[in-house]
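Troubleshooting log. The previous structure file for this entry was overwritten by mistake, so regenerating from the original sequence record. Sequence copied from the archived sheet and checked twice against the printout by T.R.
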Amino acid sequence: MNFRHYWATLDYIPEDKSIFWYFLWGILLGGSLVYAIFTFNFLFAVVIIIGFIFVFHPDFRKLKSIRVELTDEYIKIDDNEFKLNDYYTFSIYKINERNFLELYPKSFFKKEIHLPLPEDLVEQVREDLKKIMPESKEGPSLLTFIFRNLWH
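Regenerated output below.
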């Protein structure tokens, strides 16, 4: 029943946005800024300027490599260790050609774990985790699905 899996993954996959994406947001934010100036709405103008920074800043979030170790007792993510007996079920699903492992906690006060999972480990991890907890067939929650599709 003992098992141990190691993998390293990127916390997100960087994507270059098309020129249309920048053009669309430039028009929307630029029009909103003009409206804020003409209506003397200073607070709205500040919010729009912050929006410009978020949309057009090239490297707002640095790409990070995550080290993962999964055993029959715990999952270790970088230097943080979580005991598997604090989780009651798991789910493995695919969004945008990327597999994810999700662990659901028994307690409301513990956090869910969402991790990218390499394609070659999907079946091994699924079979090993089934030995200690049931698999949820529901897939990602609606909020997880929306979030992952909005940003990719």
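The chain has a mean pLDDT of 86. Archived copy saved in two places this time.
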